[in-house]
Specification:
20% strand, 833 residues, single chain, seven-stranded mixed beta sheet, ten-stranded mixed beta sheet, 35 strands, alpha/beta
Length: 833
């Protein structure tokens, strides 16, 4: 069935039609809980209800990578649906994102429920059909009352591709009589499992970074509505009971008392229903409100009451699974629990519509007039590469974060992200200026603050993510209130000297856009070099890493050389500099051996087990979507059966690799013969002490003297443990700018470290990225971990014969949002050879 992106329709039926709405059990070929519903049947049911109920408007808001529809159901009274656009605009006026007066007669509660962002947590999508039916069933007087002053938005499946992967797998391998034995095949998904989307990304960690198409399309609609309440319904391990709000500490310090208090009200309402049934549940544990890219925290930082609900079961449970304490965890029970918390959420919001609107209004009034954080303005220098500025502004636009510039220069003092120092500086005319005094002020501060405002170190995820660090930007955070007074425009491209029949072209190496352009040049078989040191030609200075295409290298193209380069540059909006000569005013001439020829990568990536699903997806996505460059994915079982000489680059994504003696010898021989092996994150662990490789592990940290230490206290075991961990913090990493792996990064790279792998400075490996004796950090780092990690290699290159092994201890492609890391990985792919 053809779906039209963002096309919505409203079918208002007569009472006779309303009586014909079927329950899910009557519509489907199975009862809810007896079997998993394929995604197309889930969509069919929502269409059926929309066609036969005056209470539902259906909206198609996009498609997945695999072409499955993303849908929303808007549920309310026919009268409210008839003025739905007025209600939406009124809500945005309340936030300040839309101009105009607020109409208090439209003070409805807007509740958004999101199901199955993890595809194998399928009970959410199954429950959503029952929730929809309960809201529109003609005989349900209770829900009719709620809809009088509510708009309910249901997203039945945020991850259709993962959901389909799981449900089809289970229907294929599930026993006719469901078997609760967890050893049975039906309880053990194949790789990759259904949790993730097409590119194997965790969409529940993508709300702020919006790298994936599902997130991008959903966020557009979310920010058109800005609901009061958002609940994200999940499943977790089969041995766990149900979890619902209030959330666990640590809360981010910018979360208001009102948001915390209303979570308590919702939790108490849920508890009432669970108590009546005798169902087990817990609150205020594990699931905190800190990392901003979840389906609960992103709404919270956008003014809503954002919550996660977790049902024990997940893909492991199947239709029925036996827990470790002998309970039969059934899909029927799991869907019933999700239905109850969904309806309870709608109920408590409807009964508190006036209170929600009053506090929502105050939240955004405070955001616009009195932002909570220390830093009030963020300045991104216009001198940053244009492509990086464009990447950032595109992200800001998705989040509806306002920005501008100043029409004149101004003095400023504040925190400089490049040097991590607080000092005086200048806002130049044309710099990108982001004020915290705006509707999305809280989200702005959360995303840009150099240090996370957290009340406790016990957290569920990474603790640092500041966008200027992630994007490698020259930027300043200041406590001064600075109001932009002009529209920001991207810097104009440097005018290239008009050159008839150019001798060469130069492209500065500064961003992933430049790497994408290089990939397209190589795909068209253009010959490209890069400068191993800086040079100056035609009055223009160029740094090491600059790409150079000479007419001489591409003489087989004849007169088509210039037109081919310029046409591709125009198509990709890439700045190139035409050079009239190869004679350098400073540095080496273009015919010098200091311009390294770039060998066209023929890339193989190891997929399947033992790679980690998300981390393999990050590499796959980088090649397909960042570079648009072909790769071959090899399974581990096939890796040593193919002829590795068909490839000159082999990427090991993060995973648990173990190579036997024969395999290690094959890899070593391949590298010595000219291969380039790139090992990322956890895969680096395979190489210390492996024959043919020089990497050594260990720690430069000072071991703590435990002789006089007090005995450990059992109740403090969790806090004792985290002292040796780094759940996710930013480390100031020194870069050897003279090595190709460091080109374009400057002398400092801010690395997101999510583990404590320790590799002291290496004797037989180039220590290109390394931590000094006292590296600056942002986010939580355990005291013992800090000792262990000082004076460590983070990025290194081992030369072996004609090839190289590149060790990327910190994953530069983590979750696809560390833009500066993508440039570093591009160095490993193209320049290290």
């Amino acid at each position: 069935m053809k779906k039209i992106l963002f096309y919505s329709f409203l079918l208002l039926a007569s009472n006779a039609f309303a009586q014909s709405v079927l329950s899910p059990n009557d519509f489907l070929k199975h009862n809810i809980g007896e079997q998993f519903t394929p995604h197309h049947q889930l969509v069919d049911y929502y269409e059926h209800v929309a066609e036969n109920s005056p209470n539902v408007m259906l909206k198609y808001y996009g498609d997945t990578y695999e072409g499955r529809p993303l849908i929303l159901a808007f549920v309310s009274t026919p009268e409210n649906l008839a003025k739905l656009e007025d209600i939406r605009l009124n809500q945005l006026r309340r936030t300040g994102l839309e101009e105009g007066e607020v109409d208090n007669d439209l003070d409805l509660a807007i509740t958004w429920l999101s199901y199955t962002v993890h595809g194998n947590e399928a009970a959410g999508s199954e429950a959503s059909m029952s929730v929809l039916y309960e809201l529109v069933a003609p005989g349900n007087e209770r829900t009719k009352e709620w809809l009088e002053n509510s708009v309910v938005i249901l997203d039945p499946c945020l991850n259709p591709d993962g959901y389909s992967r799981y449900t089809h797998w289970y229907r294929r391998y599930g026993n006719r009589i469901p078997n609760p034995d967890l050893n049975s095949l039906e309880h053990n998904e194949a790789w990759p499992n259904g949790r993730v989307n097409h590119y194997l990304f965790d969409l529940n960690r993508d709300w702020a970074w919006v790298t994936q198409i599902e997130s991008q399309q959903r966020l557009k609609v979310y920010n058109q509505w800005m609901p009061h309440v958002h609940a994200d319904l999940h499943e977790m391990g089969i041995n766990s009971p149900y979890y619902f709000a209030p959330a666990a500490q640590p809360y981010h310090k910018y979360i208001t008392d009102w948001q915390a208090d209303f979570q308590m009200d919702i939790g108490e309402n849920h508890a009432k229903y669970f108590d009546e049934e005798g169902w087990l549940y817990y609150t205020r544990e594990i699931f905190d409100l800190l990392y901003p890219s979840y389906g609960d925290t992103y709404p919270v930082f956008s003014g809503a009451i954002g919550m996660t609900y977790e049902q024990g079961g997940s893909g492991r449970a199947g239709i029925v699974g036996e827990s470790s304490y002998g309970d039969m965890v059934t899909l029927k029970d799991r869907t019933e629990h999700h239905k109850v918390t969904s309806l309870s959420t709608i109920e408590i919001a409807a009964k508190n519509a006036s209170r929600l609107n009053q506090n929502f209004n105050q939240y955004f009034k405070d955001a616009r007039n009195n932002p909570a954080g220390e830093y009030k303005t963020y300045i991104i220098k216009a001198s940053n590469p244009k492509a990086k500025l464009e990447q950032l502004t595109n992200l800001l636009d998705l989040h509806k974060i306002e920005y501008g510039t100043l029409s004149q220069d101004a003095k400023v003092s504040g925190f400089h992200y490049k040097t991590t120092e607080s000092k005086n500086g200048t806002i130049s005319k044309g710099d990108l200026v982001i004020s915290a005094y705006q509707p999305k002020g809280v989200l702005t501060q959360v995303l840009f603050d150099p240090e996370t405002a957290v009340v406790d170190s016990l957290t569920y995820d990474i603790t640092a993510w500041a966008l200027p660090f992630a994007h490698g930007l020259d930027a300043i955070a200041t406590k001064q209130k600075i109001t932009p007074n002009a529209a920001f425009e991207l810097p104009k491209a440097t005018a290239s000297k008009k050159v008839e029949n150019a001798y060469a072209y130069a492209i500065r190496w500064q961003s992933t856009q430049d790497a994408h352009f290089l990939a397209q040049l190589l795909k068209t078989d253009l010959k490209v070099r890069y400068a191993t040191q800086g040079f100056k030609i035609d009055g223009q200075s160029f740094d090491a890493g600059t790409l150079v295409l000479t007419q001489a290298d591409n003489r087989m193209m004849g007169e088509e050389f210039s037109s081919a380069v310029e046409a591709l540059a125009k198509e990709l909006n890439q700045e190139v500099m035409a050079l009239s000569t190869g004679f350098s005013e400073a540095g080496k001439d273009l015919g010098s051996g200091s311009y390294q020829f770039i060998q066209k990568p023929k890339v193989a990536i190891v997929g399947d087990r033992p790679t980690f699903t998300n981390e393999f997806g990050q590499v796959w996505y980088y090649f397909e979507r960042t570079l648009n460059y072909p790769v071959t994915v090899l399974t581990m079982s096939n890796l040593f059966r193919v002829d590795l000489d068909d490839y000159n680059v082999l990427v090991l994504p993060e995973g648990r690799f173990r190579f036997n003696e024969s395999q290690a010898e094959q890899l070593s021989d391949w590298v010595r013969g000219g291969g380039r092996l790139i090992a990322i994150g956890n895969s680096v662990r395979a190489f210390p002490s492996m024959a043919g490789f020089s990497l050594e592990t260990g720690s430069n940290g000072e071991s703590s003297d435990s002789k006089d230490a007090a005995p450990a206290v059992y109740g403090n075991s969790t806090r004792e443990y985290i002292s040796s961990t780094t759940p996710g913090a930013i480390f100031e990493t020194k870069i050897d700018e003279t090595h190709p792996l460091g080109f374009g990064l400057g002398d400092t790279y801010y690395s997101l470290k999510t583990g404590t792998q320790a590799y002291p400075y290496q004797d037989n490996i180039w220590n290109v990225g390394y931590l000094n004796d006292d590296p600056k950090t942002f986010g939580f780092v355990g005291s013992e971990a800090r000792k262990q990690l000082k004076k460590n290699m983070i990025f290194g290159v081992e030369e072996s014969g004609r090839g190289q092994v590149i060790y990327l201890v910190d994953n530069p492609l983590y979750r696809g949002f560390w833009e500066q890391g993508k440039l570093l990985f591009s160095n490993a792919l193209f320049l290290v050879q």
